[in-house]
Design goal:
Blueprint (H helix, E strand, L loop, with lengths): L7 E6 L18 E13 L14 E16 L10 H7 L3 E15 L9 E3 L10 E7 L3 E8 L7 E3 L7 E4 L4 E9 L11 E7 L2 E18 L5 E19 L21 E5 L4 E2 L5 E5 L2 E7 L11 E9 L2 E4 L10 H7 L3 E8 L7 E11 L5 E4 L2 E4 L1 E5 L8 E5 L2
Antiparallel strand pairs: 1-11, 2-3, 3-13, 4-7, 4-9, 4-10, 5-6, 6-7, 8-9, 10-25, 11-12, 12-13, 12-16, 14-15, 14-20, 16-19, 17-18, 19-24, 20-21, 21-24, 21-25, 22-23
């Protein structure tokens, strides 16, 4: 008898898109909830004109089939050099990975002018910089950056380019500091990554999907771990009657960080003029809204004998949703609707020194796209708002996973 809570879901980034990976215990090391798996086979419904109203059996192509897997996974695990399981999954949602670097610093000045996303360089004037990076995070003696040009080195001085300028001496060379994920526009030469997903159930490898891609959302709610909710689909390799014998894996699942309501600035909004707002918010959701297309084929580049080519992500319309209390003197949402001004949203959980590191999700430019209607949360006026994420160069949303 199959039990819902004894299912195990494994996931692994594929070396070759559409070629199923062999999963091991570590690939099942995830905290998963709200799981649903499904399959569909190609059918042809007969609408024959005939002597009675009886229906004829559908024509069914038994070998032509797609599988789906949806679940929410806690954003835990990983290290400065190793991508967490959720970091593998997000790459199959149309996101690329880049390396975050950490560098020891001293003689710092004007650290209060630092904010996520700022351009940093190795020269006092930005046009003279030969090495540049995006600022991610800093402590008293360490800075985390996402390099964009050149490679910083010990004895360099690093600057930002605000009217009150930050500066610091670098006391070492860059080392691994974590990972950055942001959306990619796919090309034939550089398609989006894919994953293999396996479901174990009732002593069977019940479903194996190769070449999976999908969409999802990052949800950060106070007093809960950050969660990546995903909806994947891909050609079925095995399912149902051709499932193979398997045994449950005993896995060590990492303990996740928590969105801490005692830490200032956990969820914040920054206006276009740089003013920081910290409204009372209980949850923020960054929704990817990918358009994923299945591709049936009568031949050619199908995956195995599934009758389907790899699914493709053909478009995206990411949004951010949050629920601030109504306080127009602090955050005037009505004015944002009227003016169309852009604002950024940032949310964080954990610390770089923690076992699961620091997770920072940052949208550089959001725009409210609907009229506002107040609602009541425990008797307090609040708003459930949704904003469109905008960008010019695959930069609508960044997800950082930072380690000391």
């Amino acid at each position: 008898m199959a039990l819902a809570r004894t299912r195990q879901i494994g996931l692994k980034l594929e070396s070759t898109a559409g070629t199923a990976e062999t999963l091991v215990a570590a690939d099942f090391s995830m905290e998963i909830k709200d799981h649903q798996g499904g399959r569909e086979s190609a059918t042809y419904e007969r609408e024959s004109v005939r002597g009675t109203l009886s229906r004829r059996p559908d024509a069914r192509a038994g070998s032509s089939r797609m599988g789906s897997q949806s679940f929410a996974m806690e954003m835990s695990g990983g290290s400065a050099a190793t991508v967490a399981k959720w970091g593998e999954a997000i790459q199959a949602l149309g996101y690329g990975r880049e390396a975050v670097k950490q560098i020891a610093i001293s003689n710092t000045d004007n650290t209060e002018s630092l904010r996520i996303g700022q351009v940093l360089g190795n020269a006092l004037v930005q046009s003279s910089a030969t090495k540049t990076a995006i600022f991610v995070h800093a402590t008293a003696d360490t800075i985390w950056i996402l390099p964009t040009a050149g490679e910083f080195a010990s004895s360099d001085t690093i600057y930002n380019y605000e009217s009150t300028q930050f500066s610091a001496d670098l006391d070492g060379n860059p080392t691994d500091g974590g990972h950055a994920f942001r959306p990619l526009s796919t090309t034939t030469a550089a398609p989006h990554k894919t994953v293999t997903i396996q479901e174990l159930n009732d002593g069977l490898s019940y479903q194996l999907i190769a070449g999976a891609r999908g969409t999802g959302a990052i949800m950060m709610q106070v007093n809960q771990p950050p969660t990546l909710s995903i909806e994947m689909q891909g050609p079925l390799i095995t399912a149902g009657s051709d499932a193979t014998a398997a045994s449950a894996f005993v896995v060590d699942v990492p303990v996740p960080p928590v969105v801490d309501n005692c830490r200032a600035g956990t969820i914040s909004v920054r206006m276009s003029d740089g003013t920081l707002k910290t409204p009372l918010v209980t949850q923020v959701d960054f929704t990817l809204n990918n358009n994923v297309v299945n591709r049936p084929t009568a031949g050619g580049e199908q995956v195995g004998t599934s009758g389907y080519a790899l699914p493709m992500i053909t478009d995206r319309t990411p949004t951010v949703s949050l629920d601030p209390e109504a306080n127009l003197s602090d955050l005037d949402l009505h004015q944002l609707v009227l003016t169309g001004d852009l604002f950024s949203v940032e949310s964080a959980a954990g610390t770089p020194a923690g076992a699961n590191g620091l997770i920072k999700v940052w949208s550089p430019a959001a725009q409210l796209n609907a009229d506002l209607e107040p609602t009541a949360r425990d008797g307090l006026d609040s708003y459930n708002i949704e904003a469109k994420l905008t960008g010019d160069d695959d930069n609508e949303l960044y997800v950082f996973h930072v380690f000391a």
